[in-house]
Amino acid sequence: xxxxxxxxxxxxxxxxxxxxxxxxxxxxxxxxxxxxxxxxxxxxxxxxxxxxxxxxxxxxxxxxxxxxxxxxxxxxxxxxxxxxxxxxxxxxxxxxxxxxxxxxxxxxxxxxxxxxxxxxxxxxxxxx
Length: 128
Description:
Layout: E1 5-7, E2 22-25, E3 28-34, H1 49-66, E4 74-81, H2 87-97, E5 104-109, E6 119-126
Parallel strand pairs: 4-5
Antiparallel strand pairs: 1-2, 2-3, 3-6, 4-6
């Protein structure tokens, strides 16, 4: 059995709780839910959902690259929106990050996300 390995990146803020940014196990990378946190300060970035979505996906890309993977290797995402009314603008930005063969995805409205954020996305990617 392959042991699990935690993945982190010094280019991102430290987790705000007892979890790893990502874990490699069984040939996959499991990326914890990422919110719109500024990589330099760790502060929540407010603003239009498009800006927040872009930052979340850039942070996910950074984690994947730290693990030797990439967005093209993502097989599944789950997107949590504070307001499902933000679906269309979020989806437009999301599509730009996954222009070819997008991963499977679930998108749901979540009444209360950590730190008062408007979006959180988690991902599963091929590690090898």
